[in-house]
Amino acid sequence: MSVIWLWIGFLVLVFVFLALDLGVFNRKSHVIGIGEALRWTVVWITAALIFNVGIYFMYEHHLLGIGHHVAAAGDTHTNLSGAQAAVKFFTGYLVEKSLSLDNIFVIGLVFAYFGVPAIYQHRVLFWGILGALVMRGMMIGLGSAALHQWEWLIYVFGGLLLVTAIKMLFSKHEAVHPEKNPFVRLIKRFFPVASDFHHEHFFVKIDKKLFFTPLFLVLLVVESSDVVFAIDSIPAIFGITDDPFLVFTSNIFAILGLRSLYFALAAMIQKFRYLKISLVVILLYVGAKMMFSHLIKTHRIEDLMTWISLGIIVLIMTIGVVMSILRKESTKQ
Questions:
Q1: What rounded mean pLDDT belongs to the chain?
Q2: Cβ distance 288 to 158 under 8 Å?
Q3: Domain count, the chain
Q4: What's the CA gap between 121 and 255, in Å, rounded?
């Protein structure tokens, strides 16, 4: 039970980050430019890398018992070393960061659909990410408990990723229809909704009556969209490791940087036409790895597969970016 203090310490660290973000650095609403977004993206990536150094030392010395008795589907180590844990964290972080690119595209479409002014978008993403932290924590906890109880679920998760990859390959993001979102329909059915934005407020009083604002509806759509993406990304990280602390921390650090990544890439991501194919290939690879986890376990090559996974994921994303840039240059000529 002493490991619980590491969980508490990490949650405190996350809420300190969020408090500094909203209460200090972004206390006043403003339009976030690409330069500022890129700087914050570097800050969040650096924070994740520094934390990964902490992961190495925590697992290397088994601080408060972390890394002991990790044994379930696809991961047979009874003790994770610092190097093993650090590679798994970083690989999981890259997987979640890569899959979040598709989420960024959808968020951009949602903002465009509702006509959300750029000055209010940061507030929506901040509270959306805060809600995502809670929901993902619950989903990871349930997923980890289920995998330890029923190891065969690793094949269900793997199959889910394969199906998701195939659907993603043939799906298009030409339009979004928030009016069909069940949460939006529920709010509009039982509660009054203001017709216009009221600055950055989610609620407003009109004639002494409480109204939800369109900005709150945007928040609902963003939150529900993240749940859908989590159904894909969380099983993908379980394909890297089933250590709940590594799954949760890598997932959360990737989410924390999602907001700045959106403002840095939202205007450019449509130009990287091969990124979607890269995401499909990553999901296919991780899904296949989960489906063949029994062979990996039998031949005791978990450590080798972790390094192979890291290399493959980096290579796939690099190829997608480079091909997109070359395609863009060729169309200019």
A1: 77
A2: yes
A3: 1
A4: 16
